From TrEMBL:
GO cellular component: nucleus
Biological processes annotated in GO: chromatin organization; plant organ development; RNA modification
MF annotations from Gene Ontology: enzyme inhibitor activity; RNA binding
Record domain Pectinesterase inhibitor: where: 1-109
Stated name of the protein: Pectinesterase inhibitor domain-containing protein
Superkingdom, natural source: Eukaryota
Entry keyword set: Chromatin regulator, Nucleus, Repeat, WD repeat
InterPro entries: Beta-prop_CAF1B_HIR1, E_motif, Invertase/methylesterase_inhib, Pectinesterase_inhib_dom, PPR_At4g14850-like_plant, PPR_rpt, TPR-like_helical_dom_sf, WD40/YVTN_repeat-like_dom_sf
Subcellular location: Nucleus
Nucleus as UniProt keyword: yes
Length: 648
C-alpha cells in the first residue's frame, strides 16, 4: 500500500515538472507548478522514510512521516489559492485525492500496529528508565524528577476476548528518613540525583526471578551532616518503602545496572548472606554495560570510545541453575528474604578465614567508601585470631588510603613487616608505594628499594610518585630519575612501555614544566594517547600557564571526553590567567550549551581520627560559624594588628 502511495507521489511530481515548458511565458504559473512538483517529491520521500521506520517497528516515526506525506498536497493546493487568477487543475485534484486516501488507509494500519495502550504521565520531568517485572505484575520507572515509581497492573474488563491492561501507580520512592541526634525529630533526604545529572538515561533492572529491583542514580546521605555519596539501591519485591541494600562508593553517579540473566548455585558459606535465597544473583553496576545471556561475557563501554569484552571462565561465576528449577524456589509471597540487621551477618556466619571477611568488605565497606568500618572490621579479625591472607591486605590498605589517614596506613604496614609472606607480595608493595607517595616520597622510595619482586604496576606507580612530587624546575633531579626509570623498563627489564607508563612520564614532565617534551612523547608514542595522557599534559599547562599546548591537549580531550567538565574548566583557567577573555567566554559558553557544571572544590583535615570535609560554598558543617569567625580574626591580626588589639 505504501508502495502505491510512493508511486502516486513520484508520478505526480514528474507530471507537474512536465508542464513547466508549456508555461514558460507565464512566470507565476511556472513558479506554482515548480512548488507543487517539489511538494509531491517531498511526499514521496516521507513515505519512503516511513517504510524504513516500519522495518524497525518505529511506529511513532512512521505515523509522523505518513501524516507529513498526506499534508504536502495541501501545500500545493494553497499555492494555487494564493493567486486568484489560477485555477486548480482537475488532474492534480484527482491525484491529490488518491494520495490522501492511500495515506488514510496506511495511517489506520499503523495506528493498530503501534497504538498507545496506556499513558503513564505521573512523572514531572524526563523519564529516563523503564523496567518490566519478569512476573508481569509491576512496571518500574525512574525519572530526573528524583522519583522512582512502581506501577501495578489492575486489568480492566475484557473487551473482544482481550484483557485490557491498566497500570496504577502503587509506590513512589523518593526520600529516606534520618533520625536526628536528639531522637525527637527526623529529617528526610532525597534518594536520587536531580536533573543536573549529566546523563540521558537511568537504566534500572529487575532480577531474573523478579525478587529485587535494582535502581541507579542514587545520591545518599549517611547522616544529615554527612556528604552525599553516589550509590545504587536494591529494593525487595516485598517492600518498596526502603532499600534492602545500598551500594555506595562510586566516584561518579551510577547510570546503568544490569542483572545477569542466569542464577547460580550457592558457594559454601555464601548461602547465609544478606538474603535468604536458594541461589546466587549476580549483577553489574557500571556505565553502558551488557551481560551475555549465557553469562560468559560482559561488555563494558565508556565515554572515551573504548569497548571492553570480559570473558569469564567456565563456572567462574558459579554453577548455573536451570530456570525451571530456580523459579520453583522463589521465596513465598508472605516471607521476606531480608535479614534486618547487618550485624547478624557476622554473628550467624562465623569468620574462619580472611576470604570470608574480604567478601563482607566487598559488599559494603572498603570498596564502597566506609573506610573506618573496614579498618574496624580488620582490627576485629586480628583480635579474634583470624588468619589474614594476601587478598585482604591490599583491600584494607586502599580503605586506609581512601580515608586519607597515613597513621592507619603505617599500622597495616606493621602487620605486613611481621610476615615474610606479605613482605614478598608485589601487590601489597605496590599499594604501599602509592599510599606513601601521597604524603612522603622518601617512604615510597624505601618500599620500592626493598621490594624483590617487581612488575609493570610497580614501575608505573613509582614513576607516578615522582610526578606527584615534581612541582618545579628545582626538582630536575627527580626528572632525571624518572627518565632513567622510564628508559629502564625496556632497556633493563624487557617490558614495552604501555599507555599507563607513558601517562606517568607525561605527568612527571608536565608538572616540572617540560611541556614541549611531554607533548612530543604524547604525539610520538606507538599507542594512541588516551585521556589520562592528555589530561596530565593539560594539568601541567594549567600549572605553568601555557596557552598553546594547553589548547592542543584540551581539544584532544574534547574528542575523548566530550562531557567531562574538568577539561573545559582547566582551559578556562589558563585563558583567565593570561587575560584571554574571548577564549574564556567561548569555553564557558560551550559548557553551558553542553549542560556541564563545574565540580565544587574540596579540602579535608583529619582530627582525632575523624575526617572533616569542606566543599566550596558549603556551610553545612556544624562548626562553620566558629571557623569563619576565627578566620576573620586571623585576617585582622595579619592585616590590622593594632585594630584587632583595640577590639579585644
Amino acid at each position: 500500500m505504501i508502495g502505491i502511495g510512493i508511486a502516486n507521489a513520484t508520478a505526480t511530481s514528474s507530471y507537474l515538472s512536465s508542464q513547466l515548458p508549456s508555461s514558460a511565458n507565464d512566470t507565476i504559473l511556472k513558479k506554482v507548478l515548480k512548488e507543487c512538483a517539489d511538494k509531491y517529491s517531498y511526499a514521496g520521500d516521507a513515505l519512503q522514510a516511513s517504510v524504513q521506520d516500519l522495518a524497525v517497528e518505529s511506529y511513532d516515526y512512521a505515523y509522523m512521516h505518513i501524516m507529513a506525506a498526506a499534508d504536502y498536497p495541501n501545500g500545493c493546493h494553497n499555492a494555487f489559492k494564493r493567486y486568484p487568477g489560477l485555477a486548480y487543475p482537475p488532474e492534480i485534484a484527482r491525484r491529490e485525492k488518491g494520495l490522501k486516501q492511500i495515506c488514510d488507509v496506511v495511517l489506520g494500519i499503523v495506528d493498530l500496529l503501534g497504538s498507545v495502550h496506556q499513558l503513564l504521565d505521573n512523572h514531572f520531568h524526563y523519564v529516563q528508565g523503564v523496567a518490566w517485572d519478569p512476573l508481569n505484575k509491576y512496571v518500574a520507572s525512574l525519572s530526573s524528577d528524583r522519583t522512582c515509581r512502581v506501577y501495578i497492573n489492575k486489568p480492566q474488563t475484557k473487551t473482544k476476548g482481550f484483557e485490557k491492561i491498566n497500570y496504577v501507580c502503587q509506590h513512589v520512592i523518593t526520600k529516606t528518613e534520618h533520625q536526628l541526634a536528639d531522637d525527637s525529630k527526623s529529617s528526610k533526604n532525597h534518594l536520587f540525583h536531580d536533573e543536573t545529572l549529566p546523563s540521558f538515561f537511568r537504566r534500572l533492572a529487575w532480577s531474573p526471578d523478579g525478587s529485587f529491583l535494582l535502581v541507579p542514580a542514587g545520591s545518599y546521605k549517611m547522616s544529615p551532616a554527612s556528604d552525599m555519596v553516589n550509590t545504587a539501591y536494591a529494593f525487595s519485591r516485598k517492600d518498596f518503602s526502603r532499600p534492602a541494600l545500598m551500594l555506595p562508593g562510586a566516584s561518579k553517579p551510577v547510570v546503568a545496572v544490569r542483572f545477569c540473566p542466569m542464577v547460580f548455585s550457592p558457594r559454601g558459606l555464601h548461602s547465609a548472606g544478606f538474603f535468604k535465597l536458594p541461589y546466587r544473583l549476580i549483577f553489574a553496576v557500571a556505565t553502558l554495560n551488557s551481560l551475555s545471556s549465557n553469562a560468559q561475557y560482559l561488555a563494558v563501554s565508556s565515554q572515551d570510545g573504548y569497548c571492553t569484552l570480559v570473558e569469564f571462565e567456565t563456572n567462574e561465576l558459579g554453577l548455573p541453575i536451570p530456570s525451571a528449577e530456580h523459579k520453583k524456589d522463589l521465596f513465598p509471597e508472605n516471607k521476606s528474604p531480608i535479614i534486618e540487621k547487618r550485624e547478624d551477618i557476622m554473628i550467624e556466619t562465623p569468620v574462619n578465614d580472611g576470604f570470608r571477611c574480604l567478601e563482607f568488605d566487598d559488599f559494603g565497606f572498603g570498596k564502597n567508601g566506609f573506610y573506618a568500618e573496614a579498618l574496624n572490621l580488620f582490627r576485629d579479625m586480628i583480635a579474634q585470631g583470624v588468619k589474614v591472607d594476601v587478598l585482604t591486605i591490599p583491600s584494607i590498605l586502599n580503605a586506609c588510603g581512601g580515608g586519607g589517614d597515613l597513621m592507619k596506613v603505617k599500622e597495616i604496614h606493621g602487620q605486613v613487616v611481621k610476615s615474610i609472606l606479605f613482605n614478598e607480595d608485589v601487590a601489597i608493595g605496590n599499594s604501599l608505594i602509592d599510599l606513601y607517595a601521597k604524603c612522603c616520597l622518601g617512604d615510597s622510595e624505601k618500599v620500592f628499594q626493598n621490594m624483590h619482586n617487581l612488575n609493570v604496576v610497580t614501575w608505573t606507580t613509582m614513576i607516578s610518585s615522582y610526578g606527584v612530587h615534581g612541582k618545579g624546575e628545582n626538582h630536575s633531579g627527580l626528572i632525571d630519575q624518572g627518565r632513567v626509570i622510564f628508559s629502564s623498563i625496556w632497556s633493563d627489564y624487557g617490558f614495552e612501555p604501555c599507555v599507563e607508563h607513558c601517562a606517568c612520564m607525561v605527568d612527571l614532565l608536565s608538572r616540572c614544566g617540560h611541556l614541549e617534551e611531554a607533548l612530543g612523547l604524547a604525539q610520538n608514542m606507538k599507542l594512541a594517547a588516551t585521556a589520562s595522557i592528555w589530561g596530565a599534559l593539560l594539568a601541567g599547562c594549567l600549572m605553568h600557564k601555557n596557552v598553546k599546548i594547553g589548547e592542543i591537549a584540551a581539544h584532544h580531550l574534547y574528542k575523548l571526553e566530550p562531557r567531562n567538565p574538568s577539561n573545559y574548566v582547566a582551559l578556562s583557567c589558563i585563558y583567565e590567567s593570561q587575560n584571554i577573555w574571548d577564549g574564556l567566554t567561548r569555553t564557558r559558553t560551550n559548557m553551558r550549551e553542553l549542560g556541564l557544571v563545574k565540580t565544587p572544590g574540596c579540602s579535608w583535615i583529619t582530627i582525632a581520627g575523624m575526617i572533616h570535609k569542606f566543599y566550596q560554598g558549603d556551610y553545612s558543617h556544624p562548626s562553620t560559624k566558629v571557623m569563619c569567625e576565627t578566620l576573620d580574626d586571623m585576617i585582622k591580626v595579619l592585616a590590622l594588628p593594632n585594630v584587632f588589639k583595640q577590639e579585644h
